[in-house]
Amino acid sequence: MREDTGNRKGTYRPGELLRRQFLKVAGAGLTVTALGTGTAAAADGQPYRGPYAATYDAATVDPATLETVTTVVGTQGEGEGEENERVIPKKAPAASGSTGSATGPVQKAIASGDLVDTDFDGLGASDVRGVVPSDTQIGAGPDHVVQAVNSRLAAYEKDGTKAFEYTLDDWFQNVSPYIYEPPEGADYDTAGFFQDYIIFDPRVRYDADAGHFIVICVDYSLNTGFGGILLSVSSTSDPTDEWYNYYVPPLFPDGDGGTEERAGLVDFPEVGYDGEAIYLTQNFFPSNFTQATMVAIDKTAAYSGGTADANHFTDLRNPGGTLAFTVQPASVDGQTPGYFVNGRYFQGQSLTVWSVDDPLGDPTLSNDAVRVRPYHNPPSGAEQPETEEKIDMGDDRINRVSFDGQHLWTAQTVDDGRARWYEIDPSDSSVVQSGSYKREGRPCFYPTIDSDGETAVMVYNTSSSRNDGTGYASMEVAARSSDDPTGELSQYEVVAQGVDDYDYQDGPAGEPDTGPQVMRWGDYNGISPDPDGGFWIVSQYASTPSPRAESVDYLADNDYDTRIAYVSLG
Description:
mainly beta; Methylamine Dehydrogenase, Chain H; eight-stranded mixed β-sheet; 5 helices; 4% helix; 41% strand
């Protein structure tokens, strides 16, 4: 058992079993009224505070020799010390926003195409045992793809052969302040022993220009309330070689000219990069939402496993002074400046586009508002066949941002459940083109888009009440070429058709359903350009239920799997 007797983190100790519900309860109580308040810039006329300098040291992890740490969560009720992974307790679905009139036309006519060249199963509920949602991500290198879900990290050769698979606890044990092994002889069956930390919200990128994978996730202590971002970068373009791990806490001014860590939920971390830096952003919740923050890390030092200099920025604000929320860094290969995009929470009619100059020297962040069609949060749930349970479509926050060498691409779920995508010119903060997408009237949610300048590919999920075998929650992909009409996606393909209803909070067999009517589906999907052309995508879909844990209702049959696919427009 690892202990820290300092006053920042306290001493790690066993917690009550109900602590696995902490984030769910805390999230349900969050308010976001502050997101619309404030009119002044953060400091000195700038839309941020900072920078605050820091340095971070690496620890090396070798996938060939990595040892497993034993973490025990609760009990299966069948003997002592049975290992069992946790349900990731996420915040409740956001309330829907305004229900005003439709905001622009929806593209309905689209041809079924042959977009998927290769696909294979990724990590599913049967692999991660009890972790919902998957929040799956992907990065594609020359010979491998790396997948992360809320509890595990895996690498595959491009024919689907798995190169390695580890829990995130295993992977980050050498830098996490919170991972520990339980004391010997603990009676888990009667004591209800539960680990006091969670690792969640993974992101994966591949920096094609530099030739390195990037993986991040949140490390959060339920016991002390402190958390930070875990960062891992590969030493080469081969993920089976060594990696370098870093722990990056949120830093804030302490009032005496220095910086300090603060207790609070680090949530929805994001990662991007440009020619100079790796960028990490996050939403920070000490109680109610306080602010979005960003840190720029020297990627040359990180990629070599050295001590990496960093600059932290806090209190990010939109033009006009309102608080920014879920600021998404772009993936910019080999160029500067770096770019970021965020939307307005609940509803809005603009996006904020950020740029950063000299991120590691004398950095400056600037932003501008980009006018777009009005949007608001989608309804709370998408229907499923033959059940009253619905699937959470999330909210209207911006998803992954990509850069095609000239323009930014991003997407969000809006209004009545449509995928709104954008191509944005950051040089003059203007929309080049945008489209709203619903195939055959089906809700399309969690869209993630990328482009190489000639082709754009978007992965998303659908679910509907159709009782014809096509209504269950599915993974789909749509694409366009530069020859297609402006604002339209010309082809789509169902990558993985759902085969059953998705209800992860069913009680044990024979007992009434104890779950809510809206099932949390996730926060995002994954997409990554292949260095040789085309795109790799990953998402979850509703699969055949796995056996229920008879005695533990929170380990219900999390009936989803993930599919990894290579997509090309031909």
